C-alpha cells in the first residue's frame, strides 16, 4: 500500500503547485505582423515531350524490332493453335469427296424435280466416303494457316501505319494507300492459294463500295483470272462422271481453258456424236473435299470470333455458305436454274439477254453450247463492233431489275466474269445491235412477292422529295424489308443506294460530303460518269472510322433477311459494272431504270390486292379511290421516269460529242485520238495503268518487307549481348 499512497501524494502536490508556476511565468512579447508581399505570378506550364529521350537509340531500335517480330510470331502462333484445336475438336468431320461415286446419267432437271434436289444433295453428302481424322486435321491446318497468316500480317501492317506520325496529311494518306495495296495483295495471294470457297469470298469483296478502291481493284482478277487445273486431272473426273474418256466423248478438246472460275473451269470441245461445238464445264478435282474443310473451318472460326468478341457476329456468313455451296457443287442445280430463268424471260417480245442451251449435264460436268463473246467492260471490243457502252449498262440494269422486281428469281453473282457480250445474231429478240449472254447459274435466290413489293416501295420513296411524310415512309419500309429501326437506317440507305445518304437519313449528322447539304432524293444526284471520289471517301471514312459504326454494319447484316443480303450484293455488282464501263449518262441513270420496274411491281401488287378486295367486299367508293391513286402513282413514276430515261440518252450522247471535240482540239485535230477518248478507251487505259502500277508497288513492298524480316532475323544473333 505504500507505493500507492506515495503516488496519490505526488498528484496532490502537482495540483497545488501548477497554478502558481503558471502565474509566476513571464509574459511573452507579441509578435509583429508578417510583412505583405506583392501577389505571385503564375508558374509556367510544364512542357511534356511526346517521346522520352533514348540513351541508347541503337539498342532501343533492336529491342523494338525484336518485340515486333515476337508479337507477330505470337499472333500467328495463337491463330495456328486456335485452328489446330478446332480441327481436333471437329476431327470426326467428313471432308473427303465422293471420289468413287457411281456413274450418273445425263439429265436436265424438270421443275418438279427441283424441290427435292436439296434433300438429295444432303443425302449424297452424308453417304460420301468418311475421311480419317488426321487427313482432316492436316488439310484444315494447311489451308487455314494461309488465311490466318495473311490476316495477321494485315492487322500488324495497319496498326503500324495508323499509329505512326507523319509530317503532313498528304504523307499520311499516301502511306495508308500503300498499306491498302499491300494488304489487298496479301489477301489476294492467300485466296488464290486456297481457291474454291475463298475465291467466292474474294469476288464479293471486289465489288463492295465500302472498301477502298485499292482493295476492289486488286481483288478484281478473282472474277475470271484464277489458276487452271491441268487437263489430265480433269479427264479423271470426267471419266468418273460420264464413264467416257475425252477421246470417246469428243472429236477434239482445247487444252487451253476459255474460262477458269472459283469452282470449275470451261474448255471448248466438239461433241463426237452431234459434231456440235460445246463449252464443257468441269468441277475442279478435290474441290468438294476442300469445300467441306473450308465450310467446317469457317464455322469454327466464326464461333470462336463470336465467343472472344461478342459484338462481331458472322454466323449469317457461315449459314449462307453451308446452305448454298452444296447446291453450287451440283451442276444439275445450275441447269435447272438456267431453265427456269429462261422461261421467265420468254414472256418478253424484246430482250437482250441470252441463255446458252444445255444439251446434257452430270453432277460435276455440264455441257453448254459454245458462245463467242467478251466481257461487257471490254471497251475495245465494244468499239470495234460499234456497241454503245451506255446502252450496255442500261440493258444490264433492265435485265437484273426484271429478275428482282418482276420475276422474284434472280442471279445472285452477276460480276463481269459471268457475263458475255456479242453482236446481235440473226432471229434475235434484241432491239439493240448486241446481246448479253448470262453464264454461271449456280447461285440464284427467290424473293417472295410481299418482300419485293415493299422493297420496291422503299425505292420509290428514295426517289421522292424528302418531305416529312416521305421520310416516315422510308423508315417504315426499311423496317418491313430489313427489320431495321431508326438506329441502323442511315447504314441501310447507304448500302442500298451506294451514296452517302439523303436528307433526313441521319438526324445526328445532317450534313453530307465536305459539309454540304444532303440531297433530297436520288434524282438530285450530280452528273458524271461515276460516284465522285470525295463521296466515296466520305462513305468509307464514315463506316470505317466512326466509333461503333463497323459493329452497326455487322448488326445490320445479321438482322436483314438472307434474300435481302443477296439484293444488297446484286446492287453492288451492277453499280460496279456501270463504273467499269466508264459511262457518260451519269450515276442517276441506273436508279431511274430500277425505279421504273419498282413502279411496275408496286402497280401489279396493288392490282392483285384490289381485285381480292373487290371479290371479298364488292365495289365501293373507297375501292375506286384506292385504284385511282394506284394507277396515278404508276403513271407518274413509270411514264415520268421513262421520259427522264430518254432525256438521259440525249445527255449521254452530248457528253460523248463534247469529249470528242475537246480532245480533237487539244491534240491537233487527231481524229483517232478523239475517237478513243469518246469511246472511253483512254479512261480505261489510265485506270488499268494505275492498277498495274499499284499492283507492282505492292508486290515490291511485300518483297522488301520479306527481305527486311530475313535481315533482322539474321542480325539478331549478332546483336545479342
Describe the structure.
The chain has 721 residues and is of the alpha+beta class. Among the domains are: 69-225 and 287-325, no CATH class; 449-665, no CATH class. Helices cover 61% and strands 6% of the residues. The protein contains 25 helices and eleven strands. The chain has helices spanning 2-24, 57-89, 111-114, 117-126, 133-163, 169-194, 197-205, 213-219, 231-242, 246-249, 287-308, 315-328, 331-345, 379-384, 389-407, 449-462, 468-482, 489-497, 533-545, 549-559, 562-580, 589-617, 621-666, 671-678, 681-719, and strands at 250-253, 259-260, 264-271, 277-283, 353-354, 360-361, 365-369, 409-411, 419-423, 434-438, 444-446. The strands form three sheets. Strands 1, 2, 3, 4, 6 and 7 form a six-stranded antiparallel beta sheet that branches. Strand 6 (360-361) and strand 7 form a beta hairpin. The longest helix has 46 residues, at 621-666. It is globular and about 85 Å long. Residues 14-25, 47-54, 87-105, 107-132 and 543-549 have low confidence and may be disordered.
Amino acid at each position: 500500500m505504500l507505493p500507492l499512497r506515495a503516488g496519490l501524494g505526488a498528484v496532490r502536490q502537482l495540483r497545488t503547485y501548477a497554478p502558481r508556476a503558471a502565474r509566476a511565468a513571464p509574459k511573452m512579447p507579441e509578435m509583429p505582423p508578417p510583412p505583405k508581399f506583392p501577389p505571385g505570378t503564375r508558374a509556367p506550364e510544364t512542357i511534356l515531350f511526346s517521346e522520352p529521350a533514348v540513351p541508347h537509340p541503337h539498342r532501343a531500335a533492336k529491342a523494338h524490332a525484336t518485340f515486333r517480330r515476337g508479337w507477330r510470331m505470337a499472333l500467328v502462333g495463337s491463330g495456328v493453335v486456335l485452328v489446330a484445336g478446332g480441327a481436333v475438336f471437329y476431327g470426326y468431320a467428313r471432308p473427303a469427296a465422293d471420289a468413287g461415286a457411281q456413274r450418273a446419267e445425263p439429265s436436265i432437271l424438270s421443275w418438279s424435280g427441283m424441290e427435292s434436289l436439296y434433300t438429295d444433295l444432303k443425302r449424297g453428302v452424308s453417304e460420301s466416303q468418311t475421311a480419317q481424322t488426321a487427313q482432316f486435321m492436316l488439310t484444315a491446318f494447311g489451308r487455314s494457316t494461309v488465311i490466318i497468316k495473311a490476316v495477321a500480317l494485315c492487322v500488324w501492317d495497319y496498326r503500324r501505319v495508323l499509329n505512326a506520325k507523319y509530317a503532313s496529311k498528304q504523307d499520311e494518306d499516301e502511306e495508308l494507300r500503300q498499306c491498302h495495296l499491300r494488304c489487298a495483295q496479301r489477301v489476294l495471294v492467300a485466296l488464290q492459294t486456297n481457291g474454291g470457297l475463298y475465291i467466292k469470298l474474294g469476288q464479293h469483296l471486289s465489288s463492295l463500295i465500302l472498301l477502298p478502291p485499292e482493295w476492289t481493284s486488286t481483288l478484281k482478277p478473282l472474277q475470271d483470272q484464277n489458276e487452271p487445273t491441268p487437263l489430265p486431272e480433269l479427264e479423271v473426273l470426267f471419266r468418273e462422271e460420264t464413264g467416257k474418256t475425252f477421246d470417246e466423248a469428243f472429236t477434239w478438246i482445247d487444252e487451253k481453258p476459255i474460262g477458269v472460275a472459283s469452282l470449275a473451269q470451261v474448255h471448248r470441245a466438239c461433241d463426237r456424236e452431234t459434231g456440235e461445238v460445246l463449252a464443257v464445264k468441269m468441277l475442279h478435282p478435290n474441290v468438294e473435299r476442300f469445300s467441306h474443310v473450308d465450310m467446317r473451318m469457317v464455322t469454327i472460326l466464326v464461333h470462336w470470333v463470336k465467343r472472344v468478341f461478342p459484338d462481331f457476329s458472322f454466323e449469317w456468313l457461315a449459314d449462307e455458305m453451308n446452305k448454298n455451296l452444296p447446291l453450287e457443287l451440283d451442276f444439275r442445280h445450275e441447269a435447272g436454274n438456267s431453265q427456269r430463268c429462261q422461261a421467265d424471260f420468254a414472256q418478253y417480245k424484246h430482250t437482250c439477254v441470252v441463255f446458252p442451251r444445255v444439251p446434257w449435264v452430270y453432277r460435276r460436268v455440264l455441257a453448254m453450247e459454245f458462245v463467242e463473246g467478251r466481257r461487257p467492260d471490254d471497251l475495245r471490243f465494244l468499239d470495234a463492233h460499234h456497241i454503245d457502252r451506255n446502252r450496255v449498262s442500261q440493258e444490264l440494269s433492265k435485265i437484273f431489275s426484271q429478275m428482282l422486281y418482276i420475276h422474284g428469281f434472280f442471279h445472285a453473282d452477276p460480276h463481269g466474269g459471268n457475263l458475255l457480250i456479242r453482236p446481235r445474231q440473226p432471229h434475235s429478240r434484241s432491239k439493240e445491235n448486241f446481246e448479253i449472254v448470262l453464264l454461271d447459274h449456280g447461285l440464284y435466290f427467290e424473293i417472295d412477292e410481299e418482300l419485293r413489293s415493299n422493297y420496291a416501295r422503299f425505292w420509290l420513296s428514295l426517289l421522292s422529295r424528302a418531305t416529312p411524310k416521305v421520310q416516315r415512309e422510308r423508315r417504315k419500309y426499311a423496317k418491313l424489308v430489313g427489320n431495321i429501326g431508326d438506329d441502323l437506317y442511315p447504314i441501310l440507305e447507304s448500302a442500298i443506294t451506294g451514296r452517302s445518304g439523303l436528307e433526313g437519313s441521319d438526324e445526328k449528322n445532317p450534313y453530307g460530303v465536305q459539309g454540304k447539304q444532303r440531297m433530297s432524293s436520288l434524282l438530285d444526284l450530280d452528273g458524271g460518269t461515276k460516284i465522285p471520289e470525295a463521296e466515296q471517301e466520305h462513305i468509307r471514312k464514315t463506316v470505317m472510322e466512326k466509333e461503333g459504326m463497323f459493329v452497326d454494319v455487322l448488326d445490320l447484316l445479321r438482322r436483314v433477311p438472307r434474300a435481302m443480303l443477296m439484293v444488297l450484293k446484286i446492287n453492288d455488282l451492277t453499280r460496279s459494272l456501270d463504273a467499269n464501263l466508264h459511262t457518260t449518262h451519269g450515276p442517276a441513270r441506273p436508279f431511274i431504270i430500277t425505279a421504273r420496274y419498282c413502279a411496275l411491281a408496286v402497280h401489279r401488287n396493288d392490282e392483285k390486292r384490289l381485285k381480292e378486295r373487290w371479290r371479298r367486299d364488292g365495289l365501293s367508293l373507297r375501292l375506286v379511290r384506292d385504284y385511282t391513286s394506284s394507277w396515278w402513282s404508276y403513271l407518274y413514276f413509270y411514264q415520268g421516269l421513262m421520259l427522264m430515261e430518254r432525256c438521259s440518252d440525249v445527255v449521254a450522247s452530248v457528253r460523248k460529242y463534247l469529249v470528242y471535240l475537246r480532245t480533237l482540239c487539244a491534240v491537233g485535230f487527231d481524229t483517232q485520238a478523239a475517237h478513243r477518248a469518246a469511246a472511253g478507251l483512254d479512261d480505261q487505259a489510265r485506270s488499268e495503268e494505275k492498277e498495274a502500277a499499284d499492283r507492282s508497288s505492292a508486290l515490291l513492298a511485300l518483297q522488301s518487307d520479306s527481305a527486311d524480316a530475313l535481315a533482322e532475323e539474321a542480325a539478331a544473333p549478332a546483336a545479342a549481348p
